[in-house]
Input
Amino acid sequence: MIVLLLLTPGCWSRKEINDLAVILAVGLDQEPQSNQLRLTLQIAKPKSLTAGTKQAGFGPGQKPTWIISGTGDTIFEATRNLATESSRDLYWGHTILLVMGDRLARDGVNQVLDFFARAQQPREIMWIMVTRGKAEDILRSHAELESTPAQRIGFLIRSKTGLTVNLKDFVTMMTKTGINPAAPEVGLATVGLSELKKLPGPDNDEKGDQGNRKNEMPPQAKLTGTALFREAKLVGWLDRKETRGLLWLKGEATKGIITIPCPNHPKEKLSVDIMRGSTEITPSIARGKPVFTIKIKMEGDLKEVHCPLPLGEPATIHHLEKEFARDMEERVRGTFYKIQKQYAVDVIGLGNHFYRRYPQEWKILAPRWEKVFPEVGVEFQVQTSIIHSGFLTEPLEPWK
Amino acid sequence: MKKPVKLKFGSKGTKVKNANSYAQKEEPPGEEKCSLGLSSSLEENLGHLREIFAKSTDIIFRDFTIGRWGRLRAAVVYVDGLINITDVNENLLKAVMLEMPMAGNDQDLTKLDVLQKIKDSAFPLSQVKEATLIEQVVDAILSGDTAFLLDGYSTALLVGARGWETRSLDEPATESVVRGPREGFVETLRINTSLIRRKIKSSDLKIEMMKLGRATQTDIGIAYMENLATQELVSEVKKRLQQIDTDSILESGYLEEFIEDNPYSLFSQVNRTERPDKVAAGLLEGRIAILVDGTPFALIVPALFIEFLQASEDYYERYMISSFVRLLRYAAFMVSLLLPSLYIAITTFHQEMLPTDLLLSIAAQREGVPFPAFVEALLMEISFEALREAGIRLPRPIGQAVSIVGALVIGEASVSAGIVSPAMVIIVAVTGISSFIVPNYAMAISMRLLRFALMILAASLGLFGIMAGLIAIVIHLATLRSFGMPYLSPIVPTHPAAWKDTVIRTPWWTMLTRPPLIKKGNLHRQRPYTRRWPGQEQGGEANGRKNKN
Output
């Protein structure tokens, strides 16, 4: 009886794993003429993804993903249109990426994100990113080390070289008071050249080799910077170096490399690897205006030294630490200038920090924060320390 | 109709005494009427016996005369093959036929109570007793005793000169150990009781006897420690056993089903073992062992759920290893119960629970598999069960062939034929290995059946179904009792004092008390300062402190 009850009503939400079209990445663009949404889906093709070599159908020509594209006034409408093209049910539960074209982003993203935040299947942890150009081009990109482009970009983001913003973060930044959203910018590049250089070959003319292979390499996605939003609309970009400054400002960068000139030989360089870091933003009110102190603390290890330096002496290290701090401050200031003066978008969330410290005053300030932000005073305090110098205390120098 | 409880000989006085008192107490009044007394005529007695044993070619009647002039007629009756023929010839027949007449003259014989004299001084055998009822004589003969009947006496002498072919002591096939005693029970009850007696040399060890089965007259031994087992438990076991009225008890499994608290449960509420050491350990915890003649499997009651996941080796190996093995066993228990159903539930209902790479990999493997995951799993599990069953029943050489064929079919061919996915093969294999880790066969069988139920639930309701199934199982377990003991104790109801020997096993020197199963007698197993000896001040002190807690 019970068994009958369980079996007779048919199937509920039961779906075999190979009846699913697993969407790995979503691209959103705006059609130039109709202003309709164009939804591009990158769907995994399990057949060509098998690890086992026995399986037939796995060849170098076989692409691991299938890309379909459709239009609609809403995303859901576009989805329904696409469902007629896919033999399997679209499955959003494993979507890794959401790429938005800049045209759409400039128009505002809050409407399109509604679907992803509202629906059950898409995860809150899908990465959000913006590209200059069409999102579908990013989805079409090639993946060298990973099996699918979506996974490749996912890993790129996780390596924390740029901003890491997922759907939840983005929606939080968009709706929270006193902060504007930012998302990583992704672009296409013929990457892989530097790796090709390392290919062994005794009589390889390096340039010739590059030249030959350049054409063969399909474009791959690459993190190129940061897209800055005011409320939900894209307003500007930061390049990679500025992105790093932004990460320090936001307290997200705990890793990275800084190369500074040697104190005694300005032509030679040395590199410091940042191991740990923290950022502390303290708002205060001075003469009725909000003032912020941004304290950045970094710890790093010396990774490469090109010039002869007495590294065993504390004074040298101390000097290097100062240089290191000065360089960082310069970069942070540069980024902050761009954010504050050029674009006037508070992506660091200074307003939010202020709100948390002075909730009453913020009520007055909030409506005109956009105007106040470009004028606020900011004091930077950068503290750095060098912890290790590696296995070598002195730089490598030939015997004299 | 109830058979009169037969008196058994014991090599030790205590046993005989016990058996007597037991028989006197339990024999219902009026039983005598049903049974015919022996007459003083040998002819008549032999006639009765011949009638009773008609057409039984294995019953030997040997009548002869004793005394110098052959004045006294006598007979021996026995079952061929159940007696030690040398004993009967040398010590019984030779004694009365040749040596007796030398000892005195006929005059003396006729005047004296000859039977008493024969009993007292003629038989150089230790087990001799008298019987006055035909029924007793018949029972004794069928059990392997030799009946000695003398003309003119309405009393027969039952001489215990039993001897039949038995299997030698072997390592228990179902419970082999790496470390621990390698002897197991055999089919003969008397040898089995002697094995227990050799482990526990205490007069508190009582082994009471009864016979069950109208046709089989199977000897049943009820062993317990008088100072440890509660009287209520002992009488409850006896009561349940006495209520059995069936014609055959061929294995202890018959008894198990008769005396279980909940016969409809999938879970066995009676523990069974082939190991004397396990029985001894049970007795020393206040449990009762039921030994059945004709099977090497003894029953131990009450049995708790956790005991089915313990092996006797846990107590012989060092406690850290034992605890690790026990944890492993619990994990394997859950795996063997849940793995296929979890796989079905997650791949057909909750794909979002899988990491993306794994999802794609499983999806790739399932490309071209024509069945849903549930059917696939069912197919594999059933063929695995069939393979296991085939391997057990077949003679060993053919069994190997079956496993080779099975491994090829299940592992290799079905995957390359695209009928099942490689992931499913792994799932079934891991489940199979895990189910072998569960040390008790009864529990392993329960798991196998429940696994199928959970697979159906998983295929229809997903993880929700699995949870519902698990909750139902736990509720059922919580309601079970084994001879009054809650099945899940000491976990539920909670007895933290007994947790030293549950999921982990703490060292022996910390287990100061016996499990709280025993409500009487000396609860303390050992002195609290066992590990204090000179030269170990530091350790001793530490241990002493630990023991005080």
